[in-house]
Amino acid sequence: MLSNVYLFLLKQQQSRRIRRSRQQNFLGWARALLFLGLHPNRSMAAQKKLQGVVAATVTPMTPEGEINLSVIGQYVDYLINEQGVKNVFVNGTTGEGLSLSVQERKQLAEEWVTKGKDKLDYVIIHVGALSLPEARGLAKHAAEIGADGIAVIAPSFFKQVKKDALVAFLRDVASEAPGIPFYYYHIPPLTGIKINAEELLNGIIEQIPTFKGVKFSDKDLLDFGQCVKKNDRGQFVLLYGVDEQLLAALAMGATGAVGSTYNYLGKANNSMLEAFAKGDLSLAQKYQCSTQEVISFFMAQGFGVAETKAIVTLLSGIPMGPPRLPLSSASEEFIASVKPKLESLKNCCYS
């Protein structure tokens, strides 16, 4: 009798082991499919190639400094209809991403993905953070809500960061969103991390199979040129992030651009890209000089995130609100000084 009970229990245990093994094999295949971008909700994101102009979006806020999700739909329509821009970079520098809570960043990401569905071509969510667990959580969330890509800035409190450690950080974050494109957000003027982007590209696909390119927000065209050289097979997307130098970057091999001024200079820059693609360098130069004139004027008045929010508010009619402390609101003097220039943006060749 005891032997029969023992045999019964042994068979039960073996059966559980077989079921567990099958479940583990299934999960393993599922993870592999996700990693290859074959998940039905991720395949299109993995196949689309990001190019052209990408607006680094501001984060709308109430006068009290809370995020204002209610105007994101209007913002999407403004970018498409008034600026001809259908790609966005959410929660980056212009979007005050590192001044927001994790929950706020998730809410904004969800709203942009939801309101941009069937309207925007590409919604990239910046998920970088000083904390690795927070960045991983944001990356996983972005994948779950159907973002078209994620980007990560170098964590910058500790400046003595080595290349291998930075790549390991990026790899860990990317692993939480294995079915969507991953971009490195290179902005050493703000992070203080001096690792060249071209150095980072060495062997990165072996480390991060979903790696698709770089948002290069630096004026170091030598480093950028070396990135272009490493992109001889066109395997990377090289998005230039210094708006007033875009034409120079295009001549060197940039495949697109991400910037704050595309919130209000989108059409002019689209026209510049079209002229450059057609080989009309003279016309492309005209557009670049025109946009440089506008940017130079704004810079002379004192220019930053707060001023960008004020400009977008005045041009679009959508209240973008103040920036979050410790940034200060744009001054009344700035707003008064730029209003005539904004009228030219509405009525002249810049738009």
Question: What's this model, at a glance?
Answer:
This protein is of the alpha/beta class and 351 residues long. The protein has 15 helices and eight strands. The chain starts with a helix and ends with a helix.
Q: How confident overall, as mean pLDDT? A: 88
The arrangement of helices and strands along the chain is: HHEHEHEHEHEHHHEHEHEHHHH
User: Hey, roughly how much beta strand do the residues contain?
Assistant: 5-15%
Helix-and-strand structural type: alpha/beta
Helix content percent band: 40-55%
What is the makeup of the main sheet? 8 strands, parallel, barrel
Structural Rg? 23 Å
Q: What is the rounded distance between the termini?
A: 89 Å
Quaternary state of this entry equals single chain
- How many H/I helical runs? 15
Report low-confidence residues grouped into runs of 5 or more: 1-10, 17-46
Strand order of the largest sheet: 1-2-3-4-5-6-7-8
Number of strands: 8
* Morphology: globular
